[in-house]
Structures are given as C-alpha cells and as structure tokens.
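Holo model, magnesium ion. Inputs:
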Amino acid sequence: MISGIPVSKGIALGKALLINSEENKIKKEKISKTKIKLETKRFVKAIKKSIKQIKKIKKNVKLKLGKEKSDIFEGHIMILEDEEFSKDIKNFIKKKYSAETSVKKIIKKQIQEMKKIKNDYLKNRIIDIKDIEKRIINNLSNTEIKNFNKIKKKIILICKDLTPSETSQINTKNILGFITELGGKTSHTSIIAKSLGIPAIVGVKNATKNIKNEDYIIIDSINNEIYINPKKNIILLKNRIQEKFLKKKENLKIFKNLDAITLDGKIIKIGANINKIDEIDIAIENGAKSIGLYRTEFIYMEKNSLPTEEEQFKIYKKIAKKMKEKEVIIRTLDIGGDKKCKCINLPKEENPFLGYRAIRIYPKKIHIIRDQLKAILRASKFGNLKIMFPMIISIEEIYFLKKELEKIKTELRKKNINFNNNIKIGIMIETPAAALISNILIKEVDFFSIGSNDLTQYTLAVDRGNDLVSNLYDPMHPSIIKLIKMVVKESHKNGKWTGICGELASNPAAIKFLLQVGIDELSVSSSEIPKIKKIIRNSYFKKNIF
Ligand code: PEP
Ligand code: MG
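Output:
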C-alpha cells in the first residue's frame, strides 16, 4: 500500500494505464509488419515537431542571450535534419522495431562510436545527441499517448504529472481515477479533479516506477490509500466502502435545491466555480445560485490559437442567458503559474507563481485582454455578468484595468453596440498585499472575492503545487484567518460584499469560521454544493449563540 496527497475524494478500482513514463515510451519494442508504415509516419511527425520546437528555442535564446549561445541549437537542428540519421532510424523501423526503440538503438550506436574518439568537442556533442533523443521520444509519446480520447476501456491513470488542461479533458466514463507523482493540494490539476468528482491522489512518490501497466489498482482517496494488486478481501472491503460513499453522495442530493440557510435564519449565497461552459448545467443541477468564478483561461488553454472576440462573446452570452438573472462572475484571463497555454507564449521562469502571470501579462498583450473585455461587455446585456480581475497587488493596477474597460465601453458606444453600462467590477484578493490594502482597494471596486488558494501560497510562502511542502500548506493558518477577517470587514464598512472562491470555501472545517466572519458568498466546485448546503443548514451565523 502506498499513499500521497488525496485531492479528490472517492474510491476507484481498475487496471493501471501508465502514460508519459519512461517505461511507457519504450514499452513496445517490436511491432507487426503492418504497423511499419504507421510507425515511420509517427517518427517523421516527431522529427518535424522536434525541429519546430528547437527553431523556436533558438529564436528565443538569440533574442535573450545572443547569437553565439543560440548557435548551439543549430547543431541540434542539423542532426535532426540529417537525412542519414533519419534513414538509419527508418531502416531500423523496417526491421519491425517501434519508432521509440529504433531512435534509442541508433542513438546508442552513434554515442558508442563517438566515445571511441577522445575529443572534448565530441563529448559535448554526446550531450546534444542525448538531448535530441529525449526530445524525439517525448514527441513520439505525446503524439501517440497523451490523447485521452483514445482511451476506450476503463482504467486508472498513472503518470508523473498532469497539466490542468490535460485534466480538464478527462472523460470520467473511462478514466476512473488518477495518481500522479507531482502536484499539491490546490494545484489546478487537483481543483479540476475535484470538480470532475474523480478520485485522485497526487504527490505519490515513485508511482510510475512502483506501478506497472495492467496492475490492478485501488485508489481510496478518502483514506489516502493506494493498493497495487491487492488481495481479494481488500477488494471486497473497498467495494463496500465505495458503495457507502456513493450512497452518501446520493443522499446529499436532497439538499441541492434547498436554500443555504443557517439555523438562525441567515441565507448564504452558494455559487459554483466552473472551468468550462459545459459545467454550467452541472452547476444548475447541483443547486448553484450563481457562478462565483468562471476560470476563463480554460477557453485559451484548450486552443492552439487565440480565441476570437466573437468566439468568446458566444460563450459568455450562452452562460448569461442560461443563468438568467443569477450572477455570473467572469474572471478575466489568469494564465501563468501552473496554467500554460499554447496560444500565448510565456517565457519559462524560475518562479512562475511569482512571475509573469494573470493581469501582469495584460499591458504587453493588451489586444488579448481588450478582445476579452469586449466580448464580456457585449454579452453583458443578456444576463447578470460581472467582471473580476485576478492577482491584484496595487491600486495602480485597478486604475489601469478600469481605464482599459472605459476605453472599450467608449469604442462600443461609438459603434452603437449595446452593453450593461453599470456592469459591476470586482477583484480577487489572493495576495497578502491586496488584503492588507483592502481598505483602499474597495473604494475602486464593487466586490471582493477571496482566492484562498493563492492567498495561502503567497502568505505562507508555500507553493500550492509542490508535494514537498504540502504539509505546510494550511489555508486555516492564523495569518490567513486574520487577513480574511480584515478583507470582509473593510468591504462591509464600505457597503460592499466579499465572497470566497478558493478551495477553503468547501472545507467543512472552515464553514463556521467563514459564516461568523460574515462572508457573503461561498463559491465551490459544483459537486460540493449539496454538502456545503447541508453544513450551513446545521450551523449558526451569529457568534456566541449559546
Ligand atoms: C484562488 O487562487 O483561490 C482561486 C480561486 O483562483 P485559482 O485557483 O484559479 O488560482
Ligand atoms: Mg488564484
């Protein structure tokens, strides 16, 4: 039995499918004769992709570090474009070896020959060739394996890491649960797992080494237990726990359409956090009274090119119309950190969570955010949309964002395009800086929403996605409690309101505190709504009620 960091509760039983692991990449050594053509095609595709990637890297290095440094990559390109090199590998594939095995074998041969000649220049070339090998193998596995749509049987996914956008493509009909070696409590991968309701344990050391393809796996993320090929009595026991868990979930459904009203009569608004438009129906079905957070970056993360204003307009209009008078808080693009997207080129950084992310990228990529704001404004006349900006640390940022919004309003007016002129604007409080100056910031906005996931990582200096420090990641640390109290108090003093949309909002241990502080809205993953309503209906709002 092994364990990790349980991030999405449930029990899953099934056969393991390893993806993205070294073992998987070179898993198939031999192929059948009929596969030779396909395998060669796959190899050619991977070579082309590798060349494209290196050309891009070369360009970036040249810009940042100069021509001399970028010339190193010219060597990589030369090897990849070398016809002899490709021919050798293709010939190997013809001997009924997989593309991965052929690449490995040919490169090994080349290295052996180079080692025979004692020469510093060639030593460095060996490193280059190893680098190239890694890249081709990676590209081969990506083209073939990391496409979840190809998974047709029920499996448990085992991998080193999953990106948030990969996780959002999981089809829970076939992928019953997942285990990763990396990840933290509130990484976006974990948050999405929770909203999909898929059992998941992250931060499991050596999972891809200890688990083999086809091993029978049990994930029990309620008790943080992973079993590899367990005995029959364990399987029976976990089947029973699963049954009980599902029954409990079913029983909670009676709370879906009830108000979240405390025992002393205070109604709390319960919203849903959504990452994709299709989640709207699930949110409504689970009894959401609003959409407290729409993570619009997922629109960008799922595309190879930037979504147009029109595409976005259609999405926001659809949500606005579906939710009718109920509020929908559209958070503007929040990429960077652990959220990467192909259509916006962000530099690789040492500390991405402290770097170029969220609104910090807007000034240099202003056309992107202008398109998004235009789309939101145009859709605003179809429902009750609100705009929320992420990762604020200063009043100047709010001035900048409001100025941009005003410019767009003027442009739309000139074009006689209707929109809600009084659209409300809010900001996320997810940095200690914003919390500490909330008395100033509140004067410029209509509402706050506490992003406890980031607020925790920035206050405690604990990376939310790092399993090595996940024991220190405590969203109920006294410092965070103090900041939350301060933020709610300042908003109320100014006749405004504060919600919370971080994972703390669905933590049963935090609900009483949040109620007593006077939080106005809790926005949680749709699947958590019934549970939260039940807890609120059994809690008091007022302090010292006895
Ligand atoms: C947060 O930081 O708490 C939040 C809700 O935003 P995200 O999880 O998308 O960073
Ligand atoms: Mg955040």
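The longest helix spans residues 36-65. The chain has three domains: 5-21+146-245, 33-140, 263-537.
Archived with the compound record.
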